[in-house]
Amino acid sequence: ISRYPVDPYDRVWIPWADPKEWTEISTTRQVQSDDDDYEVPSAVMQTAVTPLNASKNLEISWDPVPQPRNPSPGYFIVMHFSELQILPSSAVRQFYVSINGMALNMTAAKLYYHGTAVISNVKPYRYDKFNISLHATTNSTLPPIINAIELFSVMPTSILGTDSQDVSATVAIKDKYHVQKNWMGDPCIPKTIAWERMMCSYTIAKTPRIISINLSFSGLNGYISSSFANLKALQYLYVQSSGSVLVFIW
């Protein structure tokens, strides 16, 4: 599994293998492009899979898990590709991608050595089961290939985000102390993935506020950041190291 600090956004990249259907390709060279807006880590892009039977399509399926407040969420599926081998001049790898029979790329994907390419749906798809199919063009001499897939579920936006001053302060604190936790996105929203070791207050029709931060055993050093003073709703700050506990109460 790859995540922070390999991925600065703390995305969780989970290996997925199907040895009965896929064969793996890998490289030790850097695989990253300056124009990759998704900034997929090289460690993730250094492996790829192709069909074990080169004449077959590359098929990937999964069943979405219903969410309590959103039983049929829409999904954006972002697929990442890179050619990891130097191909002979006579070799051609081109393919189309479809989801549940709907084509995503009208122009066949053509990859370049250690370059990166992205294919995704432009609007959210809602299905009980997703089937991704990569099929080679008629003039392709090589089977399809894929390096990584990201799944983004659509979430309701009716909930107010965390107070902007609290967000700015916690981002500054994270940068100063190099906090290695899941501190990405909105600190308090949604509740189920609020930032680790942080507590928020939730009041109807008001923005969530950060009321408690626990930075114990986080390897902190130096002075207390002045950014803590910008957390106007903060009530508790816990810092524990080497057996001693400091609790700052506002």
From TrEMBL:
Q: Where does the Malectin-like domain start and stop, copy by copy? A: 2-154
Q: Where in the cell is it found?
A: Membrane
InterPro entries per the record? LRR_dom_sf (IPR032675), Malectin-like_Carb-bd_dom (IPR024788)
Membrane topology term: Single-pass membrane protein
Provide one Gene Ontology cellular component.
membrane
Top-level taxon in the UniProt lineage? Eukaryota
Stored PANTHER family: OS07G0107800 PROTEIN-RELATED (PTHR45631), PROTEIN KINASE DOMAIN-CONTAINING PROTEIN (PTHR45631:SF156)
- The molecule here is called Malectin-like domain-containing protein
